[in-house]
From TrEMBL:
Domain of life: Bacteria
GO molecular function, one term: quinone binding
NCBIfam families named in the record: PRK07231.1
Family: Belongs to the short-chain dehydrogenases/reductases (SDR) family.
Associated pathway: Carbohydrate degradation; L-rhamnose degradation
Endoplasmic reticulum among keywords: no
Protein known as: L-rhamnose 1-dehydrogenase (NAD(P)(+))
Species, as recorded: Sphingomonas gilva
Length: 254
């Protein structure tokens, strides 16, 4: 029996990176999968095609998570296709690296709206559906090691990652009576488009790699096992928790 057999899992921001790996990994674990994305039609189609080629079921629903109506539409389309929602992986996010003193207001506001407001709307829409279904569920927010530590060019971003972790702590309390578990995943530095430009500087990349006791930066696939675990009934008594998946980067003081 596969860990997510019979479950419907939704994941936001799955046209690339961690979300894409989570969607494909969850489908391989038996879930029917609905993915959200906002711009990359080809990436979303490729994700769905890869799941279907492997014998799984998937749909893609386009929508900007910063808009409140996107969340309700996403959940409704998933229910239409698969009949229910068991797991929501809130993953969509942006990190436009920028210095603090001249941070454009638009960059600050966009980052907050996509990463934090988007998470709030998605988690709320999924929870409403799960409560109506009456058989619990699992909500996973992709937070970050950046919920715990700062970044010189991430002053607009790290508060959003602390925010989604805090959202999971509060919703774990609000939704526990409905059997809905809420947890955060805290990835370290994972090689995706979000940091391609930042890590194009060989010195920066070498420095970041050097901070990881396991000796390498993460791949999106490194996030799949922890996400499938938190989504599955193996984690039936895990709620309000934060799972750091960073190759040991956080504890590496000296
Ligand atoms: N990579 C890393 O080192 C780390 C990443 N994270 C977090 O992981 C999550 C995924 O990041 P990662 O995979 O690295 O980044 P990528 O840039 O590779 O992927 C981001 C995904 O989010 C989607 N997206 C962006 N904006 C929106 C939006 N407004 N509405 C809907 N979808 C959107 C993108 O789709 P499209 O282009 O189609 O809109 C894409 O599918 C983020 O929340 C990030 O903060 C956390 C810790 C470390
Ligand atoms: C985008 C960064 O490389 C990435 O995002 C995070 O949340 C981690 O802190 C990494 O720095």
């Amino acid at each position: 029996m596969r860990l997510l057999e019979g479950k419907t899992l939704l994941v936001t921001g799955a046209s690339a990176g961690i979300g894409r790996a989570a969607a494909i990994g969850a489908a391989a674990a038996g879930a029917s999968v609905a993915i959200n994305y906002s711009r990359d039609d080809a990436g979303a189609e490729a994700c769905v095609a890869e799941i279907e080629r492997a014998g799984g079921k998937a749909i893609a629903v386009k929508g900007d998570v910063s808009l409140p109506e996107t969340a309700g539409e996403f959940v409704a389309r998933a229910v239409e296709a698969f009949g229910k929602v068991d797991v929501m992986v809130n993953n969509a996010g942006i990190c436009p690296f920028h210095a603090f003193l001249d941070m454009p207001v638009e960059t600050l506001e966009r980052t907050m709206r996509v990463n934090l407001h988007g998470a709030y709307f998605m988690v709320q829409a999924a929870a409403r559906q799960m409560v109506a279904q009456g058989h619990g569920g699992s909500i996973i927010a992709v937070s970050s090691i950046s919920a715990l530590v700062g970044g010189e060019y991430q002053t607009h971003y790290t508060p959003t990652k602390a925010g989604v972790h805090s959202l999971m702590q509060s919703t774990a309390i609000a939704l526990g009576k409905h059997g809905i578990r809420c947890n955060s995943l805290l990835p370290g530095t994972i090689l995706t488009d979000i940091n391609k430009d930042d890590l194009a500087d060989p010195e920066k990349r070498e420095y970041m790699e050097g901070r990881v006791p396991l000796g390498r930066l993460g791949q999106p696939e490194d996030m799949v096992g922890p996400i499938v675990f938190l989504a599955s009934d193996m984690a039936a008594y895990v709620t309000g928790a934060a799972l750091l998946v960073d190759g040991g980067m956080f504890v590496n003081l000296q």
